[in-house]
Model the fold of this input.
Amino acid sequence: MKIVHNPFLPFRGYKAVNVLGVMLVRRGMEVTEVDIRHERIHTRQMLELGILPFYVLYVLEWLVRLPMRGNAYRSISFEREAYAHERDKHYLQQRPLYAWRHYLRKHKNTSYT
Done:
């Protein structure tokens, strides 16, 4: 994965963002293997759905979750999958297709903060 450090993206408060399979990292932030795995999971999601549909669904899901209780960003199914498996070094080798779908529904005993 190509990693580009820059002063503009992502916005303040975030360390990295995946744009078209390129990891943009806020200048001055340290990138870990966990961060790279997290963004690689997003790249796999993009490849499954297609780039435009991925971003459209991502934004639509965020908008739907904005008025709900909890953190809208952390509640997005794509993010939930990435955070749940970012520490698993073997996840991408065994990940089922469209695994993010299993994270669409909120689970009762899950925190999204």
The first strand starts at residue 2 and ends at 6. Strands lie at 2-6, 16-19, 22-26.
